[in-house]
């Protein structure tokens, strides 16, 4: 096993045309986390961009926990192949997989950590569950809210955040990154308690 590492996957679609979309909030959270890991993302044969290293500094100045940050280079609905290949390559068990993704069923800016459960119609999660043969992985759900009026959810997630949303987005991404840090450093239960506490 890769030194007790966690594989942290940020979901999204590849290319600049999708970069600011609500569906790409997983990529955005990984960009924040990557600031605390030496080096930069590199292309991996598993069809992903990967950054493998220590996340910040631990107690007493010791190196932080080992993480493999990954952004699949495929489209969202094909995320499972790269994730399964990375779990095999780094010898990381499903229990240490963390998937960061957008969530229509949570109000904008709401953050929730969970392990397992359904995919809620999210094509990225469906692909991952099918490819790895399990739903027993951790998820950081980043709320984007439901589309207004009768707008098609499939269209809504492929649009950029609204101007009013962008004013708060940087803070939300930092809080999401903090949730992932807490998860890999202190475990799911403690991270959930802190992230879900009323504010």
Overall description:
The chain contains six helices and seven strands; from the N terminus they run βαβββαββαβααα. With 199 residues, the chain is α/β, with parallel strands linked by helices. It has a single domain, classed as Peptidyl-tRNA hydrolase (Rossmann fold, 3-Layer(aba) Sandwich). A seven-stranded mixed beta sheet has the order 2-3-4-1-5-7-6, sandwiched between helices. A hairpin with a 3-residue loop joins strand 2 and strand 3. Helix 1 crosses helix 5 and helix 5 packs antiparallel against helix 6. The longest helix is centred in the C-terminal third of the chain and has 24 residues. It is globular. The termini are far apart.
The CATH topology is given as Rossmann fold
CATH architecture descriptor name: 3-Layer(aba) Sandwich
First and last CA, distance: 38 Å
The proportion of residues in beta strands is 15-25%
Largest sheet: 7 strands, mixed
Give the SSE order as H and E letters: EHEEEHEEHEHHH
Q: What's the alpha carbon Rg, rounded to whole Å?
A: 16 Å
Structural domains: how many: 1
Q: Briefly, what CATH class? A: Alpha Beta
Counting copies of identical and different chains, the oligomeric state is single chain
Which range best describes the helical content: under 10%, 10-25%, 25-40%, 40-55%, 55-70% or over 70%?
25-40%
What is the average of the pLDDT values? 94
Total of helices: 6
């Amino acid at each position: 096993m890769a030194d007790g590492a966690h594989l942290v996957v940020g979901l999204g679609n590849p290319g600049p045309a999708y970069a600011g979309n609500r569906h790409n909030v997983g990529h955005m959270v990984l960009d924040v986390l990557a600031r605390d890991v030496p080096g930069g993302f590199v292309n991996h044969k598993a069809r992903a961009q990967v950054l493998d290293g220590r996340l910040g500094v631990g107690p007493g100045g010791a190196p932080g926990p080992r993480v493999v940050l990954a952004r699949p280079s495929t489209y969202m609905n094909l995320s499972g192949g790269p994730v399964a290949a990375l779990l095999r390559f780094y010898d990381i068990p499903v229990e240490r997989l963390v998937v960061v993704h957008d969530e229509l069923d949570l109000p904008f800016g709401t953050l929730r950590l969970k392990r397992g459960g359904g995919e809620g119609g999210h094509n990225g999660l469906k692909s991952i569950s099918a490819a790895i043969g399990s739903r027993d992985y951790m998820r950081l759900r980043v709320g984007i809210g439901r589309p207004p009026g009768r707008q098609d959810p499939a269209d809504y997630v492929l649009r950029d955040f609204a101007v009013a949303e962008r004013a708060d987005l940087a803070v939300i991404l930092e809080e999401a990154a903090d949730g992932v840090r807490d998860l890999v450093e202190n475990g799911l239960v403690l991270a959930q308690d802190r992230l879900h506490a009323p504010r």
